[in-house]
Amino acid sequence: MLQFFDPPPPLWQAGLFIYGFLVLRYVVLAGGAFLLFCKWLAPKIHSVKLDPRPLKNEDAWREIRWSMLTLIVFSLNGVFIVAATRAGWTQLSTAPLSELSLLSSLIAVLGLLLFHDLYFYVIHRSMHHPLLYQRFHEVHHRSLSPTPWAAFSFHPLEAVVESGVVTLMVFLFPIHVSELVAFQVISLLMNIYGHLGYDFATREYHESHRILRWFNTTRSHQHHHRRFNTNYGLYTLLWDRILGTYQTPTEIRLNREPRHPESGTSIPGTLLDRSLF
Ligand SMILES: [Zn+2]
Ligand SMILES: [Zn+2]
After folding, report:
1. Which numbered ligand comes closest to the C-alpha of 132?
2. Residues 141-156: what's their mean pLDDT?
3. Closest ligand (CA of 197)
4. Residue 276, pLDDT above cutoff 50
């Protein structure tokens, strides 16, 4: 695959390629999950939908618009990484795939996921400071009942901070570009799962399972979209459980528009008349 880039294209072409790849990845994975679960299977799986209200197309379009902006930010960061790699500043390898071992690549991808899990927890929890929340993170929380399209629904400045994790990775760790791409695909799949809105296992099953209780679920993340100051994790609930921010997703009854507990920001949404969980 990498021979495709020989000779290396100018940076603007690299940027267009990265943006195209990111949009394709988003449309195929997030759009595929949206069509499959939120449209085609929706009538059959309504009983496991966390929020019983029907989805509004305008919510999905808002998530898509913000996500497209986020992907521009991610692409610009990608251009910077390409330029830095060409200058020899990063540890990103483009060696032939035949030089990689499957085991070391699996360990590398797992390590990237764990690193991102901690990075995301710190950034996400910081974004809930009232000053940052009102200016930036409120965009993501406009989705009270997120869809898979919400995976990248961030304010562009929050997207800059989120993209910083990839920059850190290529400067800190000797990783191969294919390992980075594998990490990004898995990351998006987990992100989509967190915003799916359908949970096929019960809360009790997740809570009592020795292994699964450490992993984030769509139910835990939807709880975060309602309660704001709990369950910040992306892939795992490790840091939430260690640092005391985990809250079991319990029944929530809202009889008014939810407000951020610290800033008091009102979140636009329809009044709810029945339990969510
Ligand atoms: Zn979310
Ligand atoms: Zn949040």
Report:
1. 2
2. 94
3. 1
4. no
